[in-house]
Specification:
The protein is α+β, with helices and mostly antiparallel strands. Helices cover 15% and strands 37% of the residues. The strands form 5 sheets. A 9-stranded mixed β-sheet has the order 1-5-18-7-15-19-20-22-21. Strands 2, 4, 6, 12, 14, 16 and 17 form a 7-stranded mixed β-sheet that branches.
Length: 318
Amino acid sequence: MTTHTIHASAATIQRGLISPQAPPILTIASGDTVILDTWAMWDNAGDASLDLAGALALRDRFRAEGRGPHSLTGPIAIAQARPGDILKVEIERLEVADHGINVIFPGKQSRGLLADIFEEAELRHFVLDGRTMTTTLGNHITIPLRPFLGIMGVSPPTGEPPRSSAIPGDFGGNIDCADLVAGSILYLPVFAEGAGFFVGDAHAAQGSGEVVQTALETTMKVAQLRLTVLTGRSIKRPRAETPDHFITMGLDQDLREAARQAVLDMIDLLVDAQGIGRRDAYALCSLQADLLVTQLVNGVNGIHARMPKAIFRKGRRL
């Protein structure tokens, strides 16, 4: 197995678009590890020098160009990946920068949950303490840092047009699942030759829902990921695994439909991985699965279902 290092630069970044036509920046073998970094929002402009006027101007420009705000490192091709396979992404190490921002956009231009009430724009800067893994809000609130990549995905099916990086889909992308910290595993369905894996949208912290439309946005100084192709079975949508939970994900404009997808995928997972019947699996979802709002601010909303591993005698993986 080989370890590859990729530095975010103009040559290795997709700027606010997810395109099946984008050529790979690197081809690796299944089982290889990549160590990479990411840019900040808006072509790396979301740093400590950014002010509110600049943030709003950048947002308007990117939207007018049909782009999302994200800078995506990739795509990375995995030589053995074919449509119908699964790409297993083991998240081994994540190290964030020492600065982050949170933006509340103007009411009529925002997808925030309470945009009709909190109509005034606001930009907050945060100092991220890598030693204590905390930051502060005001004088008496300490926020623990739980870094994760808001965007991890693969190329949509070949032939589809480029799309904004803001909109997630069955290929992954902007899923914003805060459970995907170091030590967790993401499973992605493969739709194109080589998979076309990409990452971005580094977050230092986020509550499930991401209700103002941004999390604690930052950059990843180090993201160490092991990429392995799994053959012989397939999945419809992203799934994940933490040391404590199995996770399935639903994505739809309608939150109820997203919840249906997450539960249906959890039933499939339980039948395949634990060998129980579908009716028992459905009942178990009602007894033990937690349905959480992953995010509801990206146009396509997300629900993830978490099933505790501790209840199973068999320690089988997805």
